[in-house]
Write a structure and sequence with these properties.
The protein is an alpha/beta fold. 27% of the residues lie in helices and 24% in strands. It contains 19 helices and 28 strands. Strands 4, 6, 7, 10, 11, 26, 27 and 28 form an eight-stranded mixed β-sheet that branches. Strands 14-13-12-15-16-18 form a six-stranded parallel β-sheet, sandwiched between helices. Helix 5 (171-179) crosses helix 10, helix 5 (171-179) crosses helix 15 (483-494) and helix 10 runs parallel beside helix 11 (377-393). The two termini are 13 Å apart.
Length: 580
């Protein structure tokens, strides 16, 4: 006899006349749904340019909470009046195609399983799914050009039959994690851009610029040595010389020569003053570079815009010289964890932090020693329960640390396990500038600091930028993802090198969606909260609660009581057994 789950997978269940949906009618949780519950809406028939899709699973994210709280004032809703034009939350989505319009039949077919890449742009404007475009907290909805004809093509990723629904929903957050270790910075001078070379009066060093100096259309020079002037004069770039200006004049220079956008590439020669370095760094353009070349340390830490490192991909490069060009390129600027090294994850107990730790553990030739830090012993225990078996099987030492309960500082702990060298890599998933600054003190001199959590642009943290040019330290940050990052997760899962579903921490049905959002606020679960819209009345429950509530499902959990396809099948069989 065919099981309910098998019929569901085959899209062999009767289509209802109406669908349950959580529409967001304004700011605040009281405006999500009607009277605190989802509402019934008609299921439309697709025309030639649309297809009807069934939402199989939705992962909840703190971004959903932000949208619910801010309503139409959220930046990606563009002051939309939600009372007249509601949206829906849910951008971490796995779906099945149910019916395809005539114009789309060559591209999609009924029964096809897809995951959503929600970070969408239409004509250069962000129209993300689950934000501007109503998202996945609904049982069925239409998809058309808003999802299928974006600036990057269709934002849907085919899923292999071997991948479960929950796993499909985790591709978006997993893709964000993968993106954090994929080179997003521009590492060469911009062709046709504007370069500013800032010298130090009295520096008479003979510099070289072996490649890249012919790229800028305009080169601005301030107090540069004669050797650099001679190099610039050999190029075809328009040149501007502004000697003797102070930091208070920098903004005027930016306004005059870049219309306030900032310089695409900045080169600082023989920097000595941390204050000057900080003032110069303020004027890097989005996706711009600051190349620091010198042999003497700055006189202090640099107040650095850590928000722009995350959101604007500003790149801090450097080298000892004399070849200025030696700072550029991927060979010198790594973005992934050091093989066989020591990595510290700050804020490791939340869903995204857990994913970073799991990736590091399962990464071939990844770090051999991992420190997971949190301020909650409960979260650290949940992390150990979930990931210790993976660490053991991958020959990786997993250490946990809670600075709130330890008698030593995190800095002393890290130095103690690294012979006072510091960690090779530090990954920060906590959006607090003071925590980001502390993380910088944990690094080896040639380490990498990854700002995964974003803080607003303009947020400053004191960083040791001397290490960038003296020892090749790396400062990176990323925001968002591409469909290629999600495909990487699928490929890793297919090769058995990543188990994406093991990040699930709690499951619930459609009515539990609002409870799931509150659980995010309360930090109730260390893993991801997954909602299955086609299961209506399943209350929200952590995987540790399944033993009492749904023992048949609990019996199918993997090592460390982690979610897998067998548990998902048992859940659907238990909840949909009455469907036909």
């Amino acid at each position: 006899m065919t099981s309910a789950y098998d019929r569901y997978r085959a899209a062999d269940l009767d289509l209802p006349e109406e669908a349950w949906a959580w529409n967001l009618w304004g700011a605040g949780e009281e405006n999500m749904g009607k009277d605190g519950a989802p509402e019934l809406v008609a299921i439309p028939e697709p025309d030639a340019d649309h297809m009807l899709v069934r939402i199989d699973s939705v992962g909840l994210c703190f971004s959903d909470v932000k949208i619910m709280r801010q309503g139409g004032s959220h930046p990606k809703l563009y002051d939309r009046d939600l009372a007249k034009e509601p949206t829906r939350l849910g951008h971490e989505v796995s779906l099945t195609v149910i019916e395809v319009g005539d114009h789309l039949k060559g591209q999609y077919h009924a029964g096809q399983r897809l995951a959503v890449q929600p970070d969408i742009y239409q004509d250069g404007k962000s129209t993300a799914y689950g934000y501007t475009i109503p998202g996945g907290l609904i049982q069925y909805h239409l998809m058309g050009a808003e999802m299928l004809e974006t600036d990057d093509g269709a934002c849907l990723l085919p899923l292999p039959d071997t991948m479960g629904y929950a796993e499909g929903s985790t591709l978006e957050p997993w893709g964000c994690v993968m993106a954090a270790y994929t080179q997003r910075r521009r590492l060469e001078p911009k062709a046709g851009g504007t370069m500013w070379i800032v010298g130090r009066p009295g520096d008479e060093r003979d510099y070289l610029f072996s490649s890249g100096l012919d790229a800028p259309a305009t080169i601005v020079m301030t107090d540069v040595p004669a050797s650099v002037v001679a190099l610039v004069e050999r190029t075809s770039a328009d040149t501007v010389v502004r000697n003797g200006i102070g930091t208070e004049d920098y903004q005027g220079l930016v306004d005059e020569l870049t219309d306030g956008a900032g310089f695409d590439d900045i080169v600082m020669l023989d920097p000595r003053s941390a204050a000057t370095a900080g003032a110069v760094a303020k004027h890097i353009a989005r996706r711009g570079t600051l190349n620091m070349v010198g042999e003497t340390a700055l006189d202090g830490l640099v107040d650095t815009d850590v928000g722009r490192l995350h959101y604007d991909y500003t790149a801090y490069l450097g080298g000892r010289g004399p070849d200025i060009a030696a700072s550029y390129g991927e060979a010198r600027n790594r973005c992934d964890l050091r093989p066989q090294g020591t990595t510290v994850f700050v804020g490791a107990g939340g869903p995204m932090g857990l994913m970073h730790v799991q990736r590091a553990i399962q990464q071939p030739d990844g770090p051999r020693k991992i420190v997971a830090t949190e301020v909650s012993d409960e979260r650290l225990k949940a992390l150990e329960d979930r990931l210790a078996h993976l660490a053991e099987s991958n020959d990786c030492e997993l250490l946990t640390f809670n600075s709130q309960t330890s008698d030593q500082s995190l800095h002393d702990f890290v130095m103690g396990i690294t012979d006072n060298q510091g960690a090779d890599d530090v990954v920060v998933s906590v959006p607090i500038s003071a925590v980001m600054a502390e993380a910088d003190t944990l690094m080896n001199s040639d380490g990498m600091l990854v700002f995964f959590a974003g803080v607003p642009n303009g947020t400053l943290a004191p960083l040791n930028l001397s290490a960038v040019y003296l020892d090749n330290a790396q400062y990176t940050g990323t925001s968002g993802l591409t469909i290629h990052d999600q495909q990487q997760v699928v490929d890793l899962a297919n090769r058995g090198e990543l188990s994406p579903g093991s990040i699930v921490g709690a499951v619930g049905g459609m009515r539990a969606a609002k409870d799931g959002l509150q659980a995010l606020v309360d930090g109730s679960y260390s893993g991801k909260v997954l909602i299955f819209p086609q299961i209506h009345d399943l209350p929200l429950m952590g995987l540790d609660e399944l033993k009492e509530q749904l023992p048949d499902v609990a019996a199918k959990l993997g090592p460390g009581e982690t979610w897998n396809d067998e548990a998902e099948k048992a859940l659907f069989d238990s909840q949909l057994s009455g469907s036909s």
